[in-house]
Amino acid sequence: MTARPAPDVGDRAPGFRLRRTFEEDVDLDRVLERGPVVLAFYVFDFGGY
Questions:
Q1: What Gene3D superfamilies would the database entry show (predicted)?
Q2: Contact 35, 28 (CB under 8 A)
Q3: Which residue has the higher pLDDT, 1 or 47?
Q4: 1, 31, 33, 44: which could form a disulfide with 49 (CB 3.0–4.6 Å)?
């Protein structure tokens, strides 16, 4: 398996679906229908580090 190159700022993310606890899954394509999306990852958030 080869790694994909890192995306550039402004590149469109590939489609994906995130599972939510006790709620409907979040599908990127459906959310994008409402407008731009900011995707942020918080490393160690809520982990007590």
A1: Glutaredoxin (3.40.30.10)
A2: no
A3: 1
A4: 44
Q: Give a yes or no: residue 10 inside a domain.
A: no
Question: 5 Cβ partners below 8 Å, 6+ apart?
Answer: none
Coil vs helix vs strand at 30: helix
Domain contains 9 = no
The larger pLDDT score, comparing residue 48 to residue 7, is at 7
β-bridge partners, 18: 26
pTM over 0.85: no
What Rg, from alpha-carbon coordinates, does the chain have? 14
In a domain, 6, yes or no: no
Residue identified by tokens 């398996």 is 1
